[in-house]
Amino acid sequence: MKWFGISLQSHISISKVLLVCFAFVAGSLGMMSFTMDPGNGGKSLSDSLNDKTAFKSLFTNDRFDASKPYAGQLNPRAVAFVQEYVRKHGEHLEKMKSWGKPYFDLYDNILTVYGLPREMKYLSVIESSLGANIVSWAGAAGPWQLMPYEARRFGLRVGSIDDRTDYYKSTHAAAKLMRELYTEFQDWLLVVAAYNAGAGRVKQAIRKSGSKDFWDLQYHLPEETRNHVKKFIGTHYVFEGSGGWTTMTAAETQIKKAAMQTSADVVLSTEEINNTTVLEINGRYNSLVVTNALLMDLNQFNRWNPGFDKTLAEGKKYSMRILKDKEPIFQSKKQQLLMESVRALLEGTSVSK
C-alpha cells in the first residue's frame, strides 16, 4: 500500500517518415531483464520449493558470495526474506502468470512508451495483486495504489468517478510517477521504496545513512517499505526466473554493465572504469553524431564501443560507454541525437564505424 510521497523521392519521403518513427520509438524502449532457465526440471513451483535445494535454481551460483556485488545472483541480504516470500506466495503468483496476462500486456505497452523497464509491472502485483477496487487504509486505490493527490497531479479524476480504478489511465499515471522517481534517484530499488514511502522518506534515509545503496539505507526506512522492496524482488524472481536491472542497485547495475562489454578484447583501466558509465540504448544512433554532440574523441569512443554502429543498425540494444560527465548531456539530447542520426542516415552523410 502507499503511504505518502512526492511522489513518476516519392517513396523516399514515405520511407523517411517510417524510418524516423521506427527509430524514435525504438530509441524510447527501456532496459530489459536478463533471464535464466529456472531449472526446475518440469516440476511445479510448489513442488520444487519442497526440495531443500530448489531455491538455488533461481540464482547463478549454488553458493552466495556476500563479499561481491551480486550482479546476477540475489543479494545475500535479501535471500531469507525472498525465500519465505516465494514459499508463501509462489503458487498464487504462478497462477497469476496466466490470468494476469491481459493486464501485463497492457502494462508492457504503456511502460515501454515511457521508456521504463517492463519489469516495473511487478510493482502493481505487490501493490494490489492487480486488483482494481483495492483501497488502502491511507486512501490509495486501484491496481497501482495511487494516492488521491498524486492521481490528481497526473490528471486523474478522484471522487464519484475514480480514474485510479481504470487500468489504462492509472498505468499512465503510475508510469509518470515512476519515471519522475527514477529521474531523481537513478536506482530502481529506490524507486520502489519511494513509490511506497514517498521520495521524502527515501531522501531522509540517504542523508541519515550517508549512502544511496538500498541495502545500506534500508534500516532508516519503515519496515513496510523495506519489505515492499524485497517483495518486488521476490515477485521478479518468480515471474522472470532471475534478477534483472530493476532488482539491482545503481552500483550493482554499473558493475553488471561493465561486465557486458560488447567485445572481450576491450581492456579498461581502473581509471577508465571509474570515470565512465554505461547506458543501455537502442535506435539508429550514429557514432559520429554522438561524439560530435558530446565533444568526445571518436577514436576513444570507438575503442570503448566496438561495433557500435553495426550493432544498432541490426536493431539490437547496445551498452554504450561514455564519460560520466557526458551522461547528462546525452540524456538531455538523446531524442535530438537520434533524430539527427536518422537524418544523417537518410541523407547519406552518416559515417559507420
TrEMBL record:
It comes from the Bacteria. InterPro entries: Lysozyme-like_dom_sf, Transglycosylase_SLT_dom_1. Residues 117-216 form the Transglycosylase SLT domain. Belongs to the transglycosylase Slt family. This is Membrane-bound lytic murein transglycosylase D. It comes from Sediminibacterium goheungense.
